Amino acid sequence: MLSSTQRLLASALCSLLIVGCRPFGESSRAAETSVTPARAHVPDMPWQGATVADDFPDYTSDDAGRLYDSLYAAGIRWVAITPCGFIDSTFDTDIGWTAWSRRDYRAGIRRARAAGLKVFIKPYLWSMDFWTKKRWTGDIRFDDEADRSAWFRSYTTWLVECATFARDGGAEAFCVGLELPHLTPFESEWRAIIDTVRSVFPGALTYASHGLDEAEAIRFWDALDVVGVNIYPTLSRDDHPTDDDLREGWGPVTDRLATLSRRTGKRIVLTEAGFRSVERAYDKPWEWPEHRPRPVNNEHQRLAYASLATACYGAPWYGGIFWWKMFTDPTKNNEGRDGFSPQGKPAWLQMKADLEPKAQTNTK
């Protein structure tokens, strides 16, 4: 007899096999007219959150508990927990776990919720290609239809495991994908994934796009509860920009976010946003420290944090943020002083000051 998990996985694979019979990238008329699973309740917004890195000490540790308490005291009410799926290369169709990445995510979610925080599960993919060859998930693409079908089947199987962890731990929101711009054009496949995840996870669903170009091209936002955008915009290239300079830099970005929100009829959560503690933190903020070292400048990081709060918090389209990123033990993380974390820096105090008047009123 099949277990409940096996039945769910079999259902997911059948869905994708059926989708595979249709032309790839073409909207499925059947999917558009079929009965859509009941939508989840969307927790009150804004989701003022932070991403907790999946380094050790892990999400169940006492270090994690102390971080959760400090985040709550700073006005943060959500954390993103990030299960990691491994691929051998950007051409690999098999997604799996390693001994390092398979954690007790159920217990980690419960630890965060015990601290009064809501939890957003945001699975992501990782390959050593990203480290050694400077590739990223945006390089994952399959021109061969059979390879693409194999990838979607493997991805769905892995994602159902993540959704099961999220459900069992009591997470409030779940991300069905993160920065896969060469794969999101295949609308039917994503609608099948979303339906499958909804059969497992009862909470709110989103997808985390690679910036606004991918977000504006996605055609399945209607099947999700919230629009998710990872955003790292260049705001200025000046060495000493004024507040007005940074505000002007945000203008085109927030205009597009507002337009996207109106078009989809949904609030937008900044599923990732952050700035390194370096000179000109507001210029190409997406660059990894190991790919482009820069002189440390904590003040420029603080200014960038303040500019985001001024430009985004309270806007009609704004549904929340997950600051990138926090470490359970910042003394042991793999970032240097020029990294993204605001912990122990002026940006932390800026984050707290900007959140205080807007912190939700729920208590532990």
Can you walk me through this structure?
This protein is of the alpha/beta class and 364 residues long. Helices cover 38% and strands 14% of the residues. The protein has helices spanning 4-20, 29-33, 62-73, 105-114, 128-132, 145-169, 187-198, 211-217, 243-264, 298-312, 346-355, and strands at residues 47-52, 78-81, 84-86, 118-121, 124-126, 173-178, 204-210, 227-230, 268-273, 318-326. The strands form 2 sheets. An 8-stranded parallel barrel has the order 1-2-4-6-7-8-9-10, surrounded by 6 helices. The chain has a two-stranded parallel sheet with strand order 3-5. Helix 6 (145-169) packs parallel to helix 7 (187-198), helix 9 (243-264) crosses helix 10 and helix 10 (298-312) packs parallel to helix 11.
Key traits:
364 residues, alpha/beta, 10 strands, disordered C terminus
Overall morphology: globular
Biggest β-sheet, characterized? 8 strands, parallel, barrel
Helix content: 25-40%
Give the N-terminus to C-terminus distance in angstroms.
42 Å
User: What is the SS-derived class?
Assistant: alpha/beta
Low-pLDDT windows of residues: 1-37, 359-364
Number of helices, counting only DSSP H or I runs of 4 residues or more = 11
Give a topology summary.
Layout: H1 4-20, H2 29-33, E1 47-52, H3 62-73, E2 78-81, E3 84-86, H4 105-114, E4 118-121, E5 124-126, H5 128-132, H6 145-169, E6 173-178, H7 187-198, E7 204-210, H8 211-217, E8 227-230, H9 243-264, E9 268-273, H10 298-312, E10 318-326, H11 346-355
Parallel strand pairs: 1-2, 1-10, 2-4, 3-5, 4-6, 6-7, 7-8, 8-9, 9-10
Helix pairs in contact: 1-6, 1-7, 4-6, 6-7, 9-10, 10-11
